[in-house]
Amino acid sequence: MGLLRLLFHDPLAFVLLIIPLLYSVIIHEVAHGWVAYKMGDATAKWLGRLTLDPRKHLDPLGTVMLLFIGFGWAKPVPVNFNNLRDQRKGLIFVSAAGITANILLAMLALLALRLVHLPPYGAATTMLLYLARINIILAAFNLIPIPPLDGSKILMGFTSRNFQYSIARLEPYGMFIIIGLLLLGVLDPVITFLEWAIISLIGLVIP
């Protein structure tokens, strides 16, 4: 269901969903920029992207897609990998930063639900459940090794220059490929498996 439809159908559910979703995506992008900055590239900092201000991160087309079909994206934080002190490690760590941030947010939400006794059907409980679910989905989705998703760049960090070049050539068409595969349901079992792997990992920390 598109978020715009949810807004008219259930305004409270819309608010409880949009806030965790918005900041989960923003924190994902900020994590990329922050790790890049720590590893030698200040591009995101210079452009004012190391902020939680939504105005710095919203992509017009991605926002419209999110509102109408429930799938969207934020503006990627710019990273100049040539500025990183160790380009191969930087490619892996910077790309993994957003996924790691999402997994940590999911862990924190589930830990809060475990430690704080909240009403089972209250707004705070619902928002924390949304926060955990959204971040598990975001982490799983971004692990898919199709450019421009983070999984492709993590893979590139472990492969040869020739293979990196081959993957990079797909990037201009990657989003169309991803949308097509999503509409065909091809990615559903992949995402389900990655979600299971992430939930299993979280279960080791929060039994």
How does this model look, in words?
The chain has 207 residues and is mainly α. It has one domain (3-205). It is 71% helix and 0% strand. It has helices at 3-9, 11-38, 43-46, 60-69, 87-115, 123-142, 150-157, 161-184, 188-205. Helix 2 (11-38) packs antiparallel against helix 5 (87-115), helix 2 packs across helix 6 and helix 6 (123-142) packs across helix 9 (188-205). The longest helix has 29 residues, at 87-115. The radius of gyration is 17 Å and the shape is globular.
Characteristics of this structure?
single chain; 207 residues; 71% helix; globular
| First-to-last CA distance | 32 Å
Question: Helix content range of the residues, please?
Answer: over 70%
Low-confidence stretches: none
Principal-axis shape? globular
> What order do the helices and strands follow?
HHHHHHHHH
The averaged pLDDT comes out at 90
SSE-based structural type: mainly alpha
Largest sheet: none
Domain count: the total is 1
Summarize it.
This protein is mainly alpha-helical and 207 residues long. 71% of the residues lie in helices and 0% in strands.
Topology of helices and strands:
Layout lengths: L2 H7 L1 H28 L4 H4 L13 H10 L17 H29 L7 H20 L7 H8 L3 H24 L3 H18 L2
